[in-house]
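Q: Predict the assembly, please.
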Amino acid sequence: MRLNEDPVALEAFYRRHVDDVMRFVVRRVSDPHVAADLTSDIFMAVLDSAHTYVPGRGSEVAWLYGIARNVVSGHHRRSVLEAQANSRVVGRRLMDDDDLVRMEERIDAERRLRDARQVMADLPEGERAVLELVAIDQLTVTEAASALGIRKVTARVRLHRARRALEKVASSAATYMGAEA
Amino acid sequence: MNTSFEERLIKAVMDEHARRTAEGAAVVPGPVRHSRTRRIATRAAVVSGAAATTVALMLIGGGTTSAYAVNKSADGSVRVTINEFRDAAELEAELAGVGIAAEIDYLPVPQTCQPYRGERADTGGQMKVGTREDGKGIEFEIGKGQIGKGETLVLAISVDPADLTKPPAATAMQIVRGPVAPCEATALPFPSGGPAGESKRDGGSGPTTDIQRRDQHGETRSQQD
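A: Predicted assembly structure:
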């Protein structure tokens, strides 16, 4: 049975992953309201795609993170107003003061990984995507490949390249910092 | 608000899922659009495809169908029992199976839908909504022909999300002719004055629930049958 045909499975899916999704989001944005919007957008996108997923078949994390990535990268291309106009459920409207505090705490907790992600910003898109999912979101290479819809071997090659490029970036950045000091 | 963002979001997600299931969007792969015209068009499709939908529900059903019961009597009236306020979309499909178009939304107290959902149909007879004898859920009977062709039974039921079997805090019921506007959650208007506050017995089947109906002048008022 597909995820969209079974409300019980859908709710269980949500409860299993809502924490991971929020963590995924706050590793990428630092505004609590935007984080709430993206969280709700991701689960709305899950509904859009629910007919494509059969629970228990394949990695649901890979499936979910593939969706989450599209939503978050889509967000960077759209304005908040535009996103709200198209969305039936707007995450920030579901937040009260306590939620805001908790979201800020989540955002603080992931600061280090947000910074790490900044370092990857200059990598080619394909390589960055794999590295992010593996290094930031702790997916296996197989899951990352599945989330991105690429072959596992391709993912492995990109990951290797990305890591090598980062070593260079890291060392040149260190040199630069050293010169400044 | 006494729940968390995560709980409110799952509620919103499940409501949206129910809405899409009712539209038939969830079973038709492809991008989902939110336009009103599509909603109206698919509503008709759901009604006409009712027999097939009912069969599918019975197959999938299992534990999920016990949330409600729909029984058609020999005289053509339909008795609806809701034991648990979940799976609104499935109940809508079940009602479609006995020829009744319905638009049902369950909302957490203190929310309800906006009062105006479409052109109000002038319907003969009154519908009784009562709590069940065991004090759980509600039941009501729809007389034969009470909801005519092109008319929709519109229910907005405000329930306690912590206990979905508890009788609702408020039940707004109307029969709409033609298109029905999608529910937009609004704050529950508390009844002011009149006999609405009293509790009354309904033929021995338990205390009746307040029913809010739109009258001819477009006001929302609370009444008991």
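The first helix of chain B runs from residue 5 to 23. The interface with chain A takes residues 1, 4-6, 8-10, 12-14, 16-18, 20-21, 26-27, 29, 31-32, 34, 60, 64, 86-87 of chain B (CB under 8 Å).
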